[in-house]
Each structure stands twice: as C-alpha cells, then as structure tokens.
Amino acid sequence: MRKRHNSKCLSLVCLALITSLGMVGVGFAAWQEGLVVQGTVGTGNIDPVFTKCELAGESCTPTRVQGDVANAGKSLNITFAEAYPGYYAHLTYRVTNEGTVPVRCETWVSCPASGLRVEHSFPVAVLDGGSSQTGDLMVYVEAVEENKKYDFTAELIFKQWNVP
Length: 164
Known about the structure:
Blueprint: H1 2-33, E1 48-58, E2 65-70, E3 75-81, E4 88-97, E5 103-109, E6 116-121, E7 126-127, E8 132-141, E9 149-160
Antiparallel strand pairs: 1-4, 2-3, 3-9, 4-8, 5-7, 5-9, 6-8
C-alpha cells in the first residue's frame, strides 16, 4: 500500500509540474504579445566630393585652361581654349569626405582629346569624415590643332576604407 501511495503522490507532483510549466508558457506568451522592440541603426554615409580645382601654374599667360567642379562635386571638367603644342598646365584639386564613413579615393581621368597627355596624382589615403586631401593634374599639349577648344573630365572612384 505504501508503494501505491508513493506512486500516486509522484503522479500528482508530475501533473502539478506540467500544469505549472504550461501556465508559465501561457503567461510568457501573453507578456511577449504586448512587448514591441523598435530601433534604428545608423551606419553613416559615404560622400566624397571635389571641393575645388584651381590653376597652380602654366607655361604662358593669359590663362588658357579652366577647371570647374561639376556633377554635384563628383567630377571636374577641364577645358582648354587656344591650346598649342608645348603648352602645359598644372592644376590642383581638393577632395573632401563630406560623409561620415571613412573612404579610400582615387581619381580617374576620361580619355582626353588626341594630342593631350594627362598625368594625375592623388595620394592613396583613407579620408575620414570631414577630412580633405589635395591632388595634382598635369596636362601637356603635344600635337593638337591650334586655336581650338579641348576638354576632358576627371572623376572620383571611391569605396569604403575597409573594403579591399
């Protein structure tokens, strides 16, 4: 009789435990239903732009070259008026990271007109948000038709600093 009493007691404890765990589950589900978690994750933005382009030197006067920031700061338009063989111009430009994510920038020069040779240098560096870096464009006029207008474009190529 004692065994039967123990097994009856054990069955009753197990039933109470299962019922208790079920109630805890129902209570947790009811609590979870009313809980709403919202959040916003800000990762920053990438926005390097050309902020200036100016003539640093040339082989003659009056000035025959002009550099303008264009395309919302994403490119430079370089225009030559009355170019002649032997003429050269040195332009400097500034790239500023107006975003918040550090970037690695390069410049790319579109194919200039036949007879123009363009050399450009921009230090390979990481630009933190708000920082700037200066680059150089050297343009040499070799074999062109005189008294004509020539132009080309320099553009920014950039990527997040930690992307290979």
